Every structure is written in C-alpha cells, then in structure tokens.
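Chapter summary example.
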Amino acid sequence: MSSNNSTRETRMSRNADHQPSPQRPHHGWRLFRRILFIIVAIGVFAIVAGAGLFFFYAQSAPKITQSALSSDASTRVYDANGNVISRLGAQNRTYVKSKNIPDTLKAAVVSTEDRRFYQNNGVDPIRILGAAFANVSGSSLGMQGGSTLTQQLVKLSVFSTAASDRTLKRKAQEAWLALQVDHKYSKDQILEYYINKVYMGNGVYGMQTAAQYYYGTSLKNLSLPQLALLAGMPQSPTNYDPTTYPATAKKRRDLVLAAMAKNKVITTTQAQEAESVSIKNGLSSIHQTTASTSAKTTKVIDAYLKQVYAELKSKGYNTTTGGLKVYTNLNMDAQQKLYNIANTSAYIAYPSDKFQIGSTIVNPNNGKVVAMIGGRKTGNVTFGLNRAVQTGRSSASTAKPLMDYGPAIEYLNYPTYEPVKDTAFTYPGTDKKLYDWDKQYQGTITMRKALYESRNIPAIRTLQNVGISKATTFLKGLGMTFDKTLTLQNGIGLYISTEQEAAAYAAFANGGTYYKPYLVSKVVTQDGKAHNYSATGKRAMSAATAFMLTDMMKDVMTNENGSGRSAAISGLYQAGKTGTDSYPDDYADKVPDGATMDSWFTGYTKSYAVSVWTGYDKQFQTGHYVSEAETKIAQEIYKYEMSYLAQNAPNTDWTKPSTVTETTQNNNKEYYITGHAGTVADTTSTSQYGSTNTTSSSAYSSNSQVTTSSSSSRVSSSTTESSTSKESSSTEQTPGGNGNDDTTNSSSTTTSSASSTTQTPDSNSNS
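The structure predicted for these 767 residues follows.
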C-alpha cells in the first residue's frame, strides 16, 4: 500500500517537473512585444521628425497678403527697360464680390473641389487619405484631389506652378500658409478669392469674366447647368472650353452636377434635368472682354510676344496660371519702328496688303532678340503665323556666306580674291543646268565679285570643293541642324528662319562667335524666385573667316555692281547679303520675267543684325509673285530699320585680326589668311562628285596641293576679271540694282520645304 502511494507521488513529482512555469512568458510573445515597440518607436520618431521638418520648411515660407490672394494670376511681360508690355489674362478679369456670387456657384465649386471645405481648417488629413484611396480604387470621378480649396488658392497666389517646383518643401509651405489663410479669412472670403483667381481659358481669369466671355452676361443670370460648367472648368480650362470641345465640356459639367447631388446641395432630379440641357445652351458667339492693354500695343508686339510664350513653354513654365513676371530683351522703340515700316505707307509702297514680311533683329554680342515682326496687315488675328520664325521658305542667296564661302575660307583658306569659275554647270548625276540671274557666264572671277554680284555657279562650285560634310559642320556651328543630308542645291537656298539667319550673320559681325538667339532674360515666379537666362557664346569660325566675309559683304551694298545697293546707308559701317528665290521651270511661264517667290536681305553692323524676308503666303496663287522691282523691298525695310537703330549705336568699323594679311589685287584692297596668299590648282577630277565640270581651285580631296605664288595669282585674277567684266558689262546690275540676284529659272531649284532635294531644318531650329 505504501509502495503504491510512493509510486504515485513519484509520478506526480515528475509531471510537475515537466509543466511550464506560469510566471515565465512565452518566447514568441516577447518577440512580438519587441517588434511592436520598435514599430511604435519608429512611428513616433517619424511623426516627430516629420513635424520638425514641416515646421523647418514652414519657417521659410513666403509671406501671403490679401493683395496676393485677391490679385489675378496673370503673366506680366516686360520689355528691356522694365516696362509692362503685356498682362496675359489681367486685361480679361472682372472682379466679383462674394455677395454677388450665386450660392449655387459656391456650392458647385465646393462640391467639385473640396466637399469638406466648411469643416476643415485649410488642410484636411481625412481628404488626403480619401483622395489617395479614391485614386487607387478609381471611385473619385476625377473630382477630388489631396489639396483643399484653400491650398489651391495659396498655390495660385504665391507659388510657381512649374512641375520642377512640386517638392515636399513646397507642399509643406503650401499647407502652412493654407492654415494661416483659413485662420485669418472667412470661408466666404476664401471662396471669393478663388472664384476670381482661377484661369478659365482663352486668356480669361475669374468666373465672373468667364460668364461674360462664354455667355455674354453676369454670373447672377446663369442657370444651374451653366454655373456647373464654369465650376468644373479650372481643372483643365482649354479642354473644357464648351465652344471648342463641347463633348468633353458636357462630360465635365455632368460630373459636377453629380457631385452636387452627392453633396446634397441639389436633388438628383435637379441634376438629371440639368444634365439634359445642351452644353451649347446660352453660349455667346461674340466674346466680351475688357482691355487694360491697348489693342495697338498688342498688335505691335504680337509676333514677339508669341515667341516669348513659346520660349517660356519650352522652359516648362505655365503662362496661364503661373503668375509670372517675364523680362524680355525687347527694344520697344525698335519694335515700334519696324511695325510702322511694315504697316504704314510712310516708308515703302507695298504692292498689296497680302504682301508679307518676317523680320528679326539680334544683338550680335549676346544673342538677344531685340525686335521681331511676323507679318503685316494681319487684321484682328492675334498669335497667328509668325513669319519671322517660319522655316518653309528658301533663304536663297543669303545662304552663300553660310554654306559656301564661309566654309571655303574656314577650311580651304580661300583668300577674298580666290579665282572661281562662272561657266556652264550641270548638277552632277543629273541633266539639270544651273544659271545665274542674268543667264550669262563671266568665266573666271574672284570670290569677292561672285559674292557681291550674287552669282550662283561660282557659289555651287565652291560648295563642291568644300564638300557637303564640312559645309554642314559649319552650319551646325551657327545653330542650324537638319533632318536629312543637305545637297548642292542648298548652297543657294536653305530652309531657315529670319531668326536663325540673323543669329548666324551676327557671328560674322562679332568676329566668329555664335550666340543662340533668345527673347526671355529673366523669369520671376510667384514665390519670388528669379531665374536668369542668357546665351553662352561658342566659337563658330575663326576671326579671320568672319572678318574676310564681312569685308566682302560690304561690297554687296557699296560696289557699283553690288546686288544690295538699295540697302546702302551713307557713312555706316555695315555688311550684308541679298537673296531671291525664282519659280521652277514648270511655273515660270505663269509669272513675268524676273518674278520671284521670296526676297531676302540680311545685314549687320557691329551692334545689330537684321534679317528680312518678303513674299506671299501662297506664292503659287495668281498674282502672288514678287516682281523684279519689288525684290528691293526687303532691302528697303532693312535700310529704314537699320538707319533708325544706328542713331543710338556706335558706328565703328571692323578691325583686321592679326591672322589676316592685307594685299592689293587689281588696285583693290584684298585679304588672305596669313601664310595662305596663293591659290590651289584645280583638282576637279578628284572631286567627291566625280564631276567633269570645270571648277575653281579645290583642296577637298587632294593632300598634295599646288600653291601658286601670290604675284602670279594676282596677275591671273586681275586679267580674267578685267576681260570678263568688260564682256558682260551690259548684263550686270546697275547701281541701285533690283537685287534679283539668284533667280536660276531652273527646274533644279526647289520651291518648298517638302521638296525631295532640299532639306528642312529639324525641331531644334525654332520652327
């Protein structure tokens, strides 16, 4: 009995030894508590750190004033002297006080932009979480974002809307200022500011002005569906324009109505009835606006302003809601003068109001575009075709210094008296013949004579010797790139704009440095941050090349046989080049002899480079040709404008660089690159084209160049020039000639940018 009891006690003791102690926690529970503690600690740290960072950013937040909240968010544009020349949107705003804003519109805006507007304190954490969930689930109907209406007002009032400025710091400052605004102003005041500030499309700011613009009446006279449309427009005013995109506008309006019904400010029945109303109901065909910037001033700067906005857009700025201050390089006096020359009869007798011009003026020393005009007699059209930057018209012979003679001096060391041949020429591999403007041949002449008389054949022969590759490289240095490989024909016509050409010729003017042309010098965003812009000069050619080209192009205006005599300005040191583009053979019989499609003149001093294009938009329409006499108009525009510009600029001549040597040829002053006084023997047989045409001297394919002495080349040059000049004297242009310098009358001359043989510049060419 005792033995059995002893056994039971032993078993109980063993079982007791194997049972866990109730005081010892399980290992898994300890691990869970530790992880939970770490998570809570991290969370607390994140909250503290986040709060610290928030208040750190808040300390540097910009000040916000009632003036900033109530002012429009328009873009102000200034000229070079700091005078306001345009206020995009400011001229189209009628401010409306809260008491005159319909309650229906207020309800529509709140339902659309911030349903908890009357409950939040300017920042709504619940809204932020709800927006995040709605965006993930797709249940927001596109109506609610994370920012409250007050935050949106702050953003429109003091911050830049550029994508690059959407930072954590900016969002923290925006939230901080929204809290301040909500504390300082009533909800009705905040709504008033918002309704008057938002952009409504077509240069219109504020919903009161939008009511006048779209419906021709005040807000108080609009119906529920009309007010709902206006309330929904600020999210994307261009896409929700009921006159242009009625389908998307209706969809947006109906979403607003649905949001209003969901927010119980209207009934479902009211929403459905409003949705059935046509989106075009009540729309006005005549848009009413007010104007604080005179229409006259707007017309004068139209093309320049359009290019300013294009430049701003390329830099990422939003000109409609950015509240920007834009400082430009515009010389308003020069702009007004150019406008007057183009649009009045006080200077030039234009053949018709349809005769058009495009012109750009550039400062050669920094690339600043100081004036630009994109057309004449354009009526009420604003921001229409800017012919100053169009690249669909041939630059004709103004291309010769850029693609032919400039590269010849730069790469082949041509002197200004280089012998070049003006003899019968057929484009290699074709049966297309090239002619000069007078359809005569002068034999061997100097490069200088070929340039100032603007003879085509010597120019193309020179381009042959240079080679397309090197010529293209030279053009690239002057800011011109092209989609496709250029051809010989481009040597007498590039598809470039007056802006590009003025900037390229500016490099000749300043000694060989290219500056990319630009209009905007500084942008100040709503937060007060200033962004400065300038062009960095890049060496495009040697100082010797720039000087020798300039010296030859002086003769274009001063030589008795120069093609640009009509651009001559007495006593002014200047240089330039003419250009006229003829009609192709299959159309030439439909226009008078000597008629052209395009006429150019690009010239410069040390202070300004001015490029002018003239012609008709529809050059193949009956009567839309530039007569032989009218080719002088481009030169005359240049002359009047440059004469005005020169009044307040120094008149100094170019100084010969040390790398250039002066010599005398045929009693004329000539120049050569020091060490390269002679010329190179004809190497046509080794030309890259394998042509049998006789060319001027070439060094393109030959490494063993034969150099004649300076004296022998002078004799040859002067003798041939003298004899050929006498032979063709009756066909050369007389003083004050028409400038009809490169009309080839050949089917080989292309007439549009769509031609398969002539290449157009790519997107980097400011088209």
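To summarize the output: Residues 135-144, 680-767 have pLDDT under 50 and may be disordered.
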